[in-house]
Amino acid sequence: MTLDGFDSGRSARIIGVDWASLAEDEAKRLKALGVDEGAEVAIVHRGVFGTRDPIALRLGNMTIAIRRAHAHAISVEAA
Asked: Ferrous iron transporter FeoA-like domain spans which residues (predicted)?
């Protein structure tokens, strides 16, 4: 399952990231923030309009905002 389809509030573990589907600068930014295999994440909020962008993601002690397209490139499993 990809992160964009994962339920809000539940914890997940990243099992893979399709880096090739992301622009190089976007991939670098996500890697620098700690988005990578093995990281524990949780969706804490989704945007309210049509595309439900952005997605607020808890990653360790941080909350980061990512686009739904980025979340679609991140494969997760329930933690």
From this structure: 1-78
